[in-house]
Every structure is written in structure tokens, then in C-alpha cells.
Amino acid sequence: MPRRTAATLATSGEVLRLIRTGEAVTRADLGRVTGLSRPAVQLRVGELLERGLVVERTDAPSTGGRPPVRLEFNAAGGVVLVAALGASRTRVAVCDLAGKELAGREFSMDVEEGPDVALPLLMDTWDELLGDRPRSMIRGVGMGVPATVEFAEGRTESARVMASWTGVVIPPIIRERFPVPVLVDNDVNVLAIGEHRGVYPDLGDLMFVKVSTRIGAGVIAGGDILRGALGAAGEIGHIPVLDGGGVLCRCGNTDCVDSVASGTALLRDLRALGKDVKTIADVTALVRAGDAETMATVREAGRRIGEVLAGAVNIINPAVVVLGGDVAEAFGPLVSSIREVVYRRSTALATRRLRIEPSRLGAGAGITGCAVMVLDHVLSPEAVDESMTLTSLRPDALIARPAG
Ligand SMILES: [Zn+2]
């Protein structure tokens, strides 16, 4: 039943959390759960109402007399700007505070042209998608980029496909135009967050593996994304395979799984066999046609990926491994090879209840993941409290100060 935390007084941010999660939906509930006095509850709820984060409803069923006023989180009380950048497709959206897409667009953008071209284009697109919504409604920005990201700084490192982005610190560039908290993570982490929250919210441990031009993974451990010390966790692409034949990887090592089993590697190996393949779609066509050499090459790639995943499964013990990315989505033989090797090579306990599933959200997981990432940050009790302090200092300040 209600827990009393009178020792540490619940803040407005904590009160918002209780209302959002449905743990307390009336002022009386809030008093019971937090141990706050009635005036203290009133003060905090008043702040949240004023900021449009909470709305009152009086249509609750009544047992007679005046119905209690219910408090609800107001998803319409603000927006977040999100973008999932990809080497081939980029998706940009404006979402409400529940993460629902209000307006979105998908287009091809040559990310290789670098941040000077790509970031202004993204910001122009957000502006168009915002329409005549007041800019004061913007609470934060969440982005996924196809590069390793030093998360705390939003700095891209050793870009997998975006060499021109190496070392770029993205948040300050965005904040010049949208002065709100800006969170940037790598594309695979946001896919993992999106698939977890959108499809497996009740599972604490999930690994999302993207097999596309490159191979990468995002890990959810104990319900949260695992970033590691700087943000490099989950970079399984540069784990070597056994007997890879000495293929030089772009990272400088040899036989990384990325260099022998990614979409790029598949195209290279099939061309070496004399196949006329320019894109993954060409490979898909050969797989559909049952071309024996192509099928064998794809199965071999699956075994290589499975070999590396088996080790990762032993370390992480996920409840589900989700396979996404255009290569995984296109090739049944690849996925069945991965499954076979992972079940054979991982330990019995790690695979006892392990599920290996295709991505259900596909590319849409990127937008969901970006929205969840930034909303978890800007609606956290700490961030809400900080923005309240600022609001009381500057009554006209309706948006949170950028983090960091
Ligand atoms: Zn490598």
C-alpha cells in the first residue's frame, strides 16, 4: 500500500511521476502516498497545472456527493522533436509528451555531406512539422545517429558511415535554434529503446541486433539502456570471428564480424563470386530465386553473426534477442543460421528461455526510441524540478534549461 516518504519531502517532479504512472491520481492519494500536507500537495499540483503538465478531470464515477477531481498527465502539454538518422533513410517527427507522433516525415538525406548540411535540414524540417505550434511547447530533442556517440556530450566518434561527423558535438548546434535539452545516441541504441518500450515493456533484458550496412547491437539491461562508461557498449560489430580468413576491417583489425558478415561484406563476397548485386534488394531477389551460392553466402554470414551473438548472450543473458535492420528483415536463411548457432553455442541457462525474434516495429522503432529517450530525461523528477526552479526565477521561462 501507499509508501510514506515524509523523511524526504516529495518534490513537484516526484508528484508528476506519481500522476504519470497512475500511482496517485487525486490530491488525497498524493497526500497519502507522499506524506505531504494538504497545502504542500496543493502547491505542487498548482505548479504542475500552471506548467500544463497535468490537467484536472471531474468525470470520475462518484459514490454520491461531489466527485473527486482526478489528476491526469497532460500529454498535449508540450512536444519533443525527434530524428532517426540513417545512412539510407532519415525519419523526423514531432511527438507529444506520451511519445505519440503528431507529425512526421521520412526522406533520403546524404548524411555523408556532414553536419553543416544535415543539421540545418533537420531543424528546418522540425520547424515545418511544428507548424504554428508555439515554440515554447518544445521540451526537448532526441536524436539517433549512425555513429558511436559519447553519450554525455553528444559527441560522435569513429563514425561507422559518417566520416565527416567524427568528433562533432551535436547538442550545442541544435540548441542555438531550439534551446532545450538535446540527447543524442547511436542509431542501434535508440532502436533497442524503441523496440523495448514499444513491444517488450515488461522484459528487463533485451538485446537488439541491427544487421544492415553495418552490424551493431543495443542492450537493455535491468530495464535501462546499457551505455557503458562512455557510450560504446553493444559495439559487437568489431568482435572478431574464428577463422575469418584475415579480412581487413575498416577499424584496422582483421576478421571483425562486421567485415565478414555485414550487408557491405555480403555484397563484396557475392560480387567476388560474379553476382551482379548493387544493393541488398538485389541480394534479396537472388535469395528468393533460390540461387545456391547466394544462399550459402547468406547462411555463412548468419553463422558468423551467431558465433559473436552466442558470446554476447552468455555475458548479458537477455530474455529476447531482437533481429532488425534491412539485411535481417530480408533474409530468412540468415536469421535461421543465427538462431541455430546461438542456441548451440550459448550456455544452457542463458538459452533456456531465450527468444530470438524479428523486429516488430522495424524502422519505426527509431522514432519511438528517440522520443522515449528524451521524454525519460525531460520528465524525470530531477529535470522537472530544475525547470520549476527556473520558472519561479523567471516567470517567462517555460522551457527547461539545456542539460550540461
Ligand atoms: Zn573492425
From TrEMBL:
SUPFAM superfamilies: Actin-like ATPase domain (SSF53067), Winged helix' DNA-binding domain (SSF46785). One of its GO terms (molecular function) is DNA-binding transcription factor activity. InterPro entries: ATPase_NBD, HTH_MarR-typ, ROK, Tscrpt_reg_HTH_AsnC-type_CS, WH-like_DNA-bd_sf, WH_DNA-bd_sf. Pfam families: MarR_2, ROK. Gene3D superfamilies: 3.30.420.40, Winged helix-like DNA-binding domain superfamily/Winged helix DNA-binding domain. Residues 15-59 form the HTH marR-type domain. Belongs to the ROK (NagC/XylR) family. This is ROK family transcriptional regulator.
